[in-house]
Design a protein that fits this description.
Elements: H1 8-11, H2 15-27, H3 38-47, E1 50-52, E2 63-65, H4 67-72, E3 76-77, E4 83-84
Antiparallel strand pairs: 1-2, 3-4
Helix pairs in contact: 2-3
Length: 91
């Protein structure tokens, strides 16, 4: 089991950035972030952790989790072998 909670890339993110990445992973694309969320989206975009919708793409939503963003998400395996993403960081 890989413990991404302790990875430098994950620890370098603010709590708001971590929550946004988990939300994108859980809910899929972000249709239209509120004005209070755009600063977080822009900071994740600068790090390459989210991507905008590509021109001509008819997928609903404006912002998506990038491959790099999904790689740094902490993922744990429970007893049944299912992968789960913890919402709160482990102490």
């Amino acid at each position: 089991m890989f413990d991404a909670e302790s990875s430098p890339a994950w620890r370098a993110l603010t709590l708001g950035q971590q929550m946004m990445l988990r939300r994108l992973d859980r809910e899929g694309s972000l249709p239209s972030p509120g004005p209070w969320e755009m600063r977080t989206v822009r900071s994740l975009l600068a790090r390459g952790l989210v991507r905008p919708r590509r021109p001509g793409d008819e997928t609903a939503g404006l912002w998506f989790l990038s491959a790099k963003g999904s790689r740094i998400l902490p993922r744990d395996t429970d007893a049944s072998g299912q992968v789960r993403i913890p919402f709160s960081p482990s102490p």
